[in-house]
Amino acid sequence: MKSLHLLGLCTLSLPSFARAWSPNQAVLGESYDAGLFTPFEDLNALSETQFTTLKHPMFPKHGVRIKKSNFCDETVNAYTGYIDVEARSLFFYFFESRNDPAKDDVMLWANGGPGCSSSLGLFLELGPCRIVDNNNTKFHPEAWNTRANVVFIDQPVGVGFSYADHGETVSTTEDGAKDIAAFVHLFFEHFKQFQGRPFHLSGESYAGRYLPAYAAAIYDQNTRLAEYGLTPVNLTSVMIGNGYVDFYRVYESYYDMPLERPEWAQRWGTPRTMNR
What we know:
Layout: E1 2-6, E2 10-14, H1 17-20, E3 52-54, E4 62-69, E5 78-85, E6 88-95, E7 105-110, H2 119-124, E8 129-133, E9 136-139, E10 148-153, E11 163-164, H3 173-190, E12 199-204, H4 207-227, E13 235-241, H5 247-260, H6 262-268, H7 271-274
Parallel strand pairs: 7-10, 7-12, 12-13
Antiparallel strand pairs: 1-2, 3-4, 4-5, 5-6, 6-10, 6-11, 8-9
C-alpha cells in the first residue's frame, strides 16, 4: 500500500498498482468483445461547432458530449462538454497542458459547497484565465495547466452549467461518484494518448467529501476494468485543500482557533462571544 497525502488534513491509502499501470500492460481479455468499441482517439478531430458523443459498452447509461473551444486560454487546446447520465448532464471544461500535453499528468478539479461551480476555481484560483469584465478574460501565468492537463467539472447535477431534463437529482455523494468514475474511464478509453498517465483528483472545501468517494469509485471500477482486460485508471493522488472532511471535527476546531491565535480572536471574536 502507498499513502496519498490530503493537503494538511489526512492520508488516503491506495494499492500500489495505482502508479504502476501503463498502457502496455493492458491486454484485452477473452471476456471483452473489442469489436463493440471504437475509440475516437484524436482530440484534434473534434468539431468547434457541434458536440461529438462518446460511448462505451461497459457504461450503457453514460455518454460524453465534447467539442473544441477557444475559450479562456488561446495558447492551448481547450474543450467543453457534458457527461450525460440518462437525463442528467454534468458540464466540464478541459484544458491541455501548456508544457507538454503528450506527456504531462491529467488532473480533475472540483470545487465544494456543496453547490459551488468549478468555474470558481477556473476563474479565481488555479484556472488558465481571470475574468476582466462581462465579456473578457486575461491570461493567468500561474495556472495549473502550466504543467498538467486539467478538467474542471460542475457537479453534482444542478451546479453551474450542469442540468437535468426533468429535475432529476443525485441523492448521495457515492451515487455522484459513480458518474465521475464512468466519465474518467470514458475519457481515457477514447483518448488513449492520456491512458496510463498519472491521474490526480483535486479540490477544496466540500470536495473533502467528494474526492475520497470519487477515488473509491475509481478504485472499485479499476477492478472491473482489469477483469475485462482494460487499462485501469492510473489514480496517483488525491489533493484536498482546506477540506470539509468531518463536520464535527471542523466545528470543534472553531472554538480552539481564537485561543491559540489572538489575531483570529480580534477578527472573529472570543469563544464566549462566538457562543452567543
